[in-house]
Amino acid sequence: MTRPRVLEKASTGLAPKALYEELRRGVLGQDRALRFVAVAVHKHVLGKVSGNILLIGSSGTGKTTIMNNLQRLYDSVDELEPFRAVTILNANLLVDAERTEFRADRLLAAVEQRARLVAGEHPSHARLAEAIGRATVCIDEVDKMSTLLAARPNPVGVVLQQGLLTLMEGETIAYRLRGWTNGRETEEVVPIDTRKMMFICGGAFEGLYDQVYNRVAKSGSGERLKTEAIRTADGTVRLETRFTLAEYVKMKDLFDFGMVPQFMARFDKVVVLNDLDTAVLKEILLHSVDSPLERTRRYFEALGIDLEIEDLAAGLVAERAAQENRTGARALRDVFSEIINPLEFDPTRDAAPDPARGGRAVIHIDAARVRKILR
């Protein structure tokens, strides 16, 4: 079998650092997580044992964004073409709740859709099976399949974790595929080997934050919460008691949450995503390719209007978003929508011609406007 061309170049442009830089174009504030993902992808394309990763993070911290950008990475780098069978699916789709049965065929069907894009026109059964066998499978909301639900046993969660465990350990599955043989499309049952698949799982793990916080804050725990000086967007300083899940969570906490030890052992790394502070949220607002500011700019450009925001105004928006408890970038979108909605509703009221731009209309968002709306 011919080795994929990507393997010959993996030590240069596809080294972990290069992969990290490409991922960082679309994901801000999660550099540590992206480094682990980049190394896992590097091992995957080299044909080594894939470094499965579990991402834990509150809503809005970027789990799904990382998965989407991982798919973008594979699609945008030519040398990664053999590995473009990347799929993102929700954990609950992998279990037939009525029969309490794990459905590996649903996972393979999702991967097959992407594999057909890789395999080209009239692919053979063997070529499709090969593309499926080196897929990257991203599974979101895996925490919803805990073995405990409201402190009671959850059989569906047990089935999901055991089923994924089997796939991650490496299993050969008989799977029905339509492919081409001697100029004719036929259906055959072919073996799919999952040993070289890479799994990136993620979940918010709601309740884990409070579970760990209560353990740490409990008298006699031997652990202490930290107090930090926080500088606001206006330049004032205040003291805050800070608790970050990444600093205090232990594997036993995940077991107590309802994750099966054998399942957790299949992950090379469990990465807790950073809560997004004011500085990161401001960077996302100003520089992310898919920030609410950039999307709104594209909208106004279609109307012949430029949109500008003052640096302090951006800081005030980010500061308010950071105050929303563990909702991250989603809070940023909500806060920014409060600022921008009146301007979108009646753009002509605030747009003014700018002589420096040849008379083109400009809307300027300053700190005074933000303070007035958010007060």
Keywords:
375 residues, alpha/beta, Rossmann fold, Helicase, Ruva Protein, domain 3, five-stranded parallel β-sheet, 16 strands, 21% strand
CATH class of the largest domain: Alpha Beta
Low-confidence stretches: 1-11
Number of structurally distinct domains: 2
Strand order of the largest sheet: 2-5-10-1-13
Number of strands: 16
Determine the structural class based on helices, strands and strand pairing. Answer: alpha/beta
**Percent of residues in beta strands:** 15-25%
Helical content band: 40-55%
Question: Helix count?
Answer: 17
Give the name of the CATH architecture of the largest domain. Answer: 3-Layer(aba) Sandwich
**CATH topology annotation of the largest domain:** Rossmann fold
The averaged pLDDT comes out at 89
First-to-last CA distance: 66 Å
